[in-house]
Amino acid sequence: MKAPRWMGLLAALLALGGGTGCPGEPVQCLGGTAPPRTATRVFGVGEEVAFDVLADLVKACNADGVVRAPESVTVEVKDPENRPVPATAVLDPGGRLATIRFAGTVEGRHHVIVSFAPVGSLHQFGVFIVKDRRGEPELARVPFSASCLNLDRTTKGTWVCGNQAWRESDTEPQSLSTRPVTAAVAGDVVWTVDGDTVRRYVDTGTGALEPAGTAPYPAGASPTNSQYPGPHARLATPDELVLLSDSLLHRYTFTEAGGIATGPTAAWVRSGGGTRYFGNDSVGGFWCARAPGCSW
């Protein structure tokens, strides 16, 4: 009795799709994990680019379970304009890694593809070629601060990082707070969120930043309140500051006559929608499902 035609097709598909992997259970050909992702590397213009790439041998085995190592390797390099760059790839005697070399003559990101055969997998990553500026004078020296997470600069040249502000001519930085702050720079205006207070400073071009108004952080939404953690994002103009926390949006405006005015605090997570997360701190982002209670 002949087997149905579909069974023969199924056997062929299994063979093509990896149905004949490492035999036996549980068999791990090398008993390890995949090599770490190849990190982006940076080299100077005119330098020889040289680095090693590890083969991925987690599932490198024959049908009989004998471990196989790569027998050859090739490399392809494209410059930022997608033009081919001459490169060499040399496999080490053990077949576990390849040494890649090429000349970095053009600034920018180079796309590198390294392919091992018959096992070892294909690897793709970027290599950056940059101008060597080590001999140039430094632009500025940043004072050490554990709270310096974002570096910014006013149009008049004052650097702002965390709770410190300084000019190149300053011997000591200006302290904007005795504790970590969230800062936003807009032109020559610097906004800070300092504990329970929003502060506004102006850079006049000489001397320290001049205070130009304060306002309280909304009651119950203090950065020290675990229910409403400190702002994850900030957006500023010289006369307006918007702060975004996990679930609240805060707005402040400034006028010469009235100083800093606090706008209404708005909840930006609504019923009928859902939350998506973004950024290294996994702040929630709202999406609306066109359901009742989900209109703005």
Note down, in words, how this protein is organized.
The structure is a single chain. The longest helix is centred in the N-terminal third of the chain and has 12 residues, at 5-16. By secondary structure, this protein is mainly beta. The strands form six sheets. A five-stranded mixed β-sheet has the order 1-8-7-3-4, with no helix packed on it. Strands 17, 18, 19, 20 and 21 form a five-stranded antiparallel β-sheet that branches. The protein has one helix at residues 5-16; strands spanning 41-44, 48-54, 72-78, 84-85, 87-91, 97-103, 108-117, 122-130, 151-153, 159-161, 164-166, 174-175, 182-186, 189-194, 197-202, 210-216, 233-237, 240-244, 248-255, 259-262, 266-267, 273-278, 283-288. Mean pLDDT is 75; it is low at 5-28 and 288-296. A hairpin with a 4-residue loop joins strand 22 and strand 23 (283-288). It starts with a helix and ends in an 8-residue tail after the last strand. 4% of the residues lie in helices and 41% in strands.
